[in-house]
């Protein structure tokens, strides 16, 4: 895989409010999120505020050069008359964000006030006081709150299958599983009655430190959670029991993500390493080390400067993006041991790919969001076949197939 072009900064969004100096305002952007269809972007900009931005951005915001502006007229025209940017006043520091689609409304139903027959979007926000507030994206209205956590809700993850199963990760050292499809009639009640114990399905206990991140596999069979510990926990989304503990990092694990076919899991740690796992067997497939960009490879020195903050897969599953404390955004190709591209960024905290590929959004300690170009790749037929097969076949099922060994190695990502 040849080196990719260096990521280019497309745009930078900054908080519209002047920075305050009391700790309650907290200006960090701990989370950014795109809706699955790419139509909305959410940004926890600090000051207890979330910005909801319809996508694509206005031409003047996203395109900086005159060349891009000349090509962006159509995008600007499409955005006219469309949904408007919204500000959600959450009342608490916002740590986690997650979108989901609410099922299509039926005439006379009690769902959120979206157009009859069309699904609408909801956004869950994890707050400093342990609350989870759920908002209707189209209107910006608060639908209801979920109570149960005793400390900061650090991360949120909706099941990708549209079942309205939400998993929350908290500093109270637990994960909670919520079913938002239960008691749907609550959504039409006054906010005084907005909390229902019926939403909570399960409390997952197993971590002994703050839980930083949680990720549900695209096939909705597994859940990974990471905390201030050297291991990651893998859970069954069917029985809500612990499958295995993944051990291999030398410091706190802070971020995790599944590949689009659910066949791979990556974890990022303060030890400056990303480990790629086979979640079905628990095997370590590869370690990606974050070493200083312009220094000899020496894993024993300056490791603290490369402490990782976030890792995410690209939509086609051929690239990874990582953000570290050494002020670099790195892009990695799945087949290589070293990054294929770098971009300088300051105080990065989180990163996420646009669902349709082409660029990456990153959040910073300054409350800013930056949008970077990312490699566009035409997946090979081999990779497309592997991705399609691994969507419904586990590693053990692939190994049982009557096919050549080399093909099994390719399908199980053992050919790195």
Molecular structure report:
There is one protein chain. The protein is mostly beta strands and 416 residues long. It folds into two domains: 9-15 and 22-58 and 84-102 and 119-377, YVTN repeat-like/Quinoprotein amine dehydrogenase (Methylamine Dehydrogenase, Chain H, 7 Propeller), CATH 2.130.10; 380-415. Helices cover 9% and strands 40% of the residues. The strands form seven sheets. The protein has a four-stranded antiparallel sheet with strand order 1-28-27-26, with no helix packed on it. A four-stranded antiparallel sheet has the order 2-3-4-5, with no helix packed on it. Strands 6-7-8-9 form a four-stranded antiparallel sheet, with no helix packed on it. It starts with 8 loop residues before the first strand and ends in a 5-residue tail after the last helix. Residues 62-81, 106-110, 184-194 and 295-304 have low confidence and may be disordered.
